[in-house]
Amino acid sequence: xxxxxxxxxxxxxxxxxxxxxxxxxxxxxxxxxxxxxxxxxxxxxxxxxxxxxxxxxxxxxxxxxxxxxxxxxxxxxxxxxxxxxxxxxxxxxxxxxxxxxxxxxxxxxxxxxxxxxxxxxxxxxxxxxxxxxxxxxxxxxxxxxxxxxxxxxxxxxxxxxxxxxxxxxxxxxxx
Length: 175
Prior knowledge:
Layout: H1 2-16, E1 23-32, E2 34-35, E3 43-45, E4 56-64, E5 69-76, E6 83-89, E7 125-126, E8 133-139, E9 150-154, E10 163-168
Parallel strand pairs: 2-3
Antiparallel strand pairs: 1-4, 3-10, 4-5, 5-8, 6-7, 6-9, 9-10
């Protein structure tokens, strides 16, 4: 009898705290790309050759109690075999590719010490033969509340490509 009560209490505690997870914050966001300015969508494509209408995106953010953050990205239906640059940007997407603002940075700055995959979230990938890809980035820091608003898919890897698509994601901190 005591073991049954204990097991029930343990199960209730695990359920109340997220099934035993130490996650403080977790969010999954999905979208389907639509042309910019034509349809209201969280996911907009600016270059339909690289990110065709109907391509899909999934983003998962998980921030642990100590602030460590993992961002996972999955795409389907993009241009097969193409290498894309992907970064978290400061603002939500809009009809104009520049609406998403600059890259989100843990420590703001414009020099090489700040513009890199340690201080920014880079999710560069190469699509497979079916136009699908999955990638993740992990950092020891959390997003500042209200300062990260989208995932921008760039035409090439690194920091020089044009903005091919944008997905508004309500990134958040653990606090």
